[in-house]
Amino acid sequence: MAMRLHPDEAVLRQRAASLGRGGLQLPPLDVVRRVQILSRMGTADSVLAQVEMRILALLSRVRLATPEDAVNATNALMRRLFIVGGDIDLSRRTVSRGSGSSSPNSRKVPAAQAGG
User: Fold this and answer.
1) Which structural domain, as residue segments, surrounds residue 22?
2) Is residue 44 scored above 80 in pLDDT?
3) Summary mean pLDDT of the chain
4) Which residues contact 115 (CB under 8 A, 6 or more apart)?
């Protein structure tokens, strides 16, 4: 929270310089302070609620499932997507069905497509 209210310009510039292959040049700090990230999908809470409802519907097709089951499955899925999707090696950004192991019969989906 303090980083948003009173960002350390040197830290921001250092982190931006380490992004990607050539780094990122930040505009002046007063411009960076005005940046907002907007999503057409809604807030994080509303997106998670939608995912939980979809997972609950899917789980209910094969067994009795509770909303808590859907919450736990959603948490595991989102954790997996963020960990795999954040891998610096693009060739490793693949999510497979199963326990995370890559079996020959698993269907692989690029992490960028797995969420939608």
Assistant:
1) 2-32
2) yes
3) 78
4) 81
